[in-house]
Amino acid sequence: MHGRIKVRTSEEQRLQKEKEQQKKLAAYRMGMKQILSTRNKENYDPASLHLSGQLLSVNPDIYTLWNYRKEVTLMELKENEAGAESEEKSIEFCENELRLTEQCLLSNPKSYGSWHHRYWILNHHPKPNWQREFDLCTKYLTMDDRNFHCWDFRRLLVNKIGITLTDEIAFSTERINVNFSNYSSWHYRSTLQFLTDSESVAKELTLVQNAVFTDPIDTSAWFYLRWVLSNPNLKKTQKDELLGALEQLQELEPDCKWIVMAKCWLSGNIAVLDKEHVENNVHYYKELIKLDPLRRGHYEDCLKSVEKLD
Questions:
Q1: Distance from CA of residue 304 to its chain's centroid?
Q2: Cα distance between residue 291 and residue 212, in whole Å
Q3: What distance in Å separates the CA atoms of residue 245 and residue 213, rounded to the nearest whole number?
Q4: pLDDT digit of tens for each residue in the chain (310 aa)?
Q5: Where are the alpha helices (DSSP H) in the chain?
Q6: Which CA distances in Å does 56 have to 63, 97, 208, 252, 278?
Q7: What are the residues whose beta carbons fall under 8 Å from the beta carbon of 212, sequence distance 6 or more?
Q8: 164: left (phi > 0), else alpha (psi -120 to 50), else beta?
Q9: Against a cut of 0.90, is the pTM above it?
């Protein structure tokens, strides 16, 4: 037995993990106690501020600590209101806050508190570099284009730097072409533009139709398609053409419920103009009940509503 590495049993591993968690919890409670004991509206304790940064680096979702750092930031900015040298101190302080949020986002890229604090700091920064933020946001989305926090952050930045709508739509198209399964990018695209004519609607239909034909199982593009179909500038000929394309796609993917769902959306819109589509919709909902029995109750309610039109 000598010279052999001892392998812990699962029970030993569990106890060791519990011991480590208890140690971290004790340190966390001690740290929070110190910070809260020194928290006031007149001044702040530098040691407590430093400790709050350490705690947030481990767990960036402690909103109390982000609020504490906001209070400290306001104190610091108020103290440095006069003079060029004082402004440099405020800039340095805000830059340190931005670096902290970067560190926190590395540990948790989807931390609400970190993103909110970063934008809040930029709005209180004496000389915020909005273009740098926008470039960083673009770089981040090329690495993780499904982080909806970053997309929301980008939307806020667009209003600050005045980028053109055409450029943003082009960026959205680029990210969608890289990955059709990108609900955040599809949603962001819907917030950018108003489809004010049939030509713009046609372009979006082409884009989203390519996506659903590429991967009919993915839900992202289907939700965007529903948004496009709700546009009042959509022509009946466009609806009929799309309905025909969906019929062809269903021959290739007979078990895909989203194709049938889209046909319901389409024929539901057309029903006002053509009673034949009411009968089709009845057929589609009965088909959905078979394809998606878990939502049977919902489809039956829809079916009742459609049958009233017959």
A1: 35
A2: 18
A3: 9
A4: 445 555 556 777 777 787 888 888 888 888 899 999 999 878 899 999 999 999 999 999 999 999 999 999 999 999 887 666 788 999 999 999 999 999 999 889 999 999 999 999 999 999 999 999 999 899 889 888 888 999 999 999 988 888 888 899 999 999 999 888 889 999 999 988 888 888 899 999 999 999 999 999 999 999 999 999 988 888 889 988 999 999 999 999 999 999 999 998 887 665 454 566 678 888 899 999 999 999 999 999 988 887 776 6
A5: 10-38, 46-58, 63-79, 84-107, 112-124, 130-143, 148-161, 165-178, 183-192, 198-214, 220-229, 236-252, 257-270, 276-291, 296-307
A6: 9, 12, 41, 51, 57
A7: 218, 221, 222, 225, 249, 258, 262
A8: beta
A9: no
Which amino acid is present at 249?
Answer: L
Alpha helices in 195-256 (DSSP H): 198-214, 220-229, 236-252
Q: Which two tokens stand for residue 141?
A: 């989305």
Provide the CA 51 distance to its chain's centre, in angstroms.
30
CA distance 109 to 116: 12
CA of 290: how far to CAs of 254, 255, 287, 303, 308, in Å? 12, 10, 5, 13, 22
What span, in angstroms and rounded, lies between the C-alpha atoms of 99 and 93?
Answer: 10
The Cα 160–Cα 129 span in angstroms is: 10
Coil, helix or strand for 271?
Answer: coil
Return the structure tokens found at 75.
């104190």
